[in-house]
Design a protein that fits this description.
The protein contains 15 helices and 15 strands. With 521 residues, the protein is α+β, with helices and mostly antiparallel strands. Keywords: Membrane, Transmembrane, Transmembrane helix.
Amino acid sequence: MIHKESPPLKSLCPSSQNDYPLLPISNHRQYPAVLHYRPTYQPANQPITRSVPSDPGANVIDHVIWSGLALFAPFAGRGKSFALILRHFQVGGSELEKALTRGAVVVVARSRVWKPSHEAEEMYVVIPDELKRDGPVNGTDQRPLARIQIIHGNFLSRVTRFMDIHGRIDLPEGYHFCIPQVTFRHIFPFRNPNNTRIKLARSKGWLKMFVALFQVIYAVITLYRTRGDQLALFGYAAFGLSVFPYAFMSMAYLICTGFVGEYSHLYLLQTAIMAEAMARKPGCISGAIGDFERREPGAKDEQVASSVDDAAADENAGGAASSGGQNGPPDIFTHAKISLRRETPSHGQPIDILKIQVDGRKPMEFTYLPPEDKFQSPEITFKISCIADQHRLPDAASSVVSDRAKLMNAKLMRFLQYVIIPLALVSPYLLIYLLTRFEARSSTVTQRAWMMAWIGSGQLAFLIHFMVAMANPGLCPTAISNPWGMLILPIIGVILVVIGLHGFIIVGKMLMQFGTCSAVP
């Protein structure tokens, strides 16, 4: 039998510019450059899809969505980690404040179907200007139609029934849970000594941190192996370069987990609204944390201009929740007693009578329009905050921060915003330039286009998730209720996944084209 002479290895395998001798080796050394991202290939590398901070109280579906997005768009995880680190240093050092910035704190809020109780309750309400001018309304023959409008600020996100909250909680009708934003620290006494001493359970994720560190080291080794033949053949489309987005994601996750940590459950904060809900039946809450300050209003506290958004802009401004509009003056909240009673006329259906008594004035009565009545228009509309009844900034609010602490936080914020974030956006292209000088070599236009599209889409994912996490750090995908958010965010997610999936395919084809040879210096 005559054996044909095999062609020399050099004709089968690409050689480097240094013309190193080439030896045939097993292909398993090259596969990890692309396949170690896929959790189905190597069990030891399964946590790669978890190198993104989990949302407090999130369910399994949310974890799967985040993990899948991080697999195909790793810069999304890096953007979220950067935002959480940035928010972590925006507040004081107490664990309760840190949990607030992480989105791990929930409060009881009045819902849109909230109704006054049959027992008189004290709260702050916006009295319409026409009642201030015309005086109180009395008598059964001239009761105007009135409705109560619950003011919902843009700093709240609804908690769904799929999210886990610490403790046992049964809310009466008219109340639900919301995750407040950082501006909530202006109406809750986080600096109260009882609150600063609170310790909350949060996981540092030491095992995840170790895995993330291993992934960073593994990615550096893979990038080192990319030198030589691979860069000489594919240029800046080399498949080994696809590892660095995951290295950056793992590094950001490593830092985020070390500083911020992760919360497995949401923590319920005790507030005046929670006490109001507990007074109603069947209200039952156990496991709440925090100590809120209550102060009986005096004659000088009958009225107050209040706005959480104004308090966020002005550290010295105090007050309760939500103004009437960001383009106009803040609403004037007035202390009043509100109750609801039912009357049954001799002829006709039973009607509800809304009774409002402002301090020092005669009671006012109105025919109450329930929230579900969409067919009648009210003549009078009263506004009530959904999360606060406070008329002033609490004495121990977190806005009382030393000038030195404010200066240090401001410097840190500027460093993160103007140095770290731009560097994170530029670093992928800088790394590619240093390794390849953006030379095309033998790569095709399709290979270069999809590889750069993969990186470009990752930068878009970085910005989107950075902004979303800065605005709402505890937002779970299954908790999105805004119609535009439910439409736009899934479309963006699908686009990112499709680009990432096609990037995997291109990398796989290049891996097969590269063959089973490697340069050995």
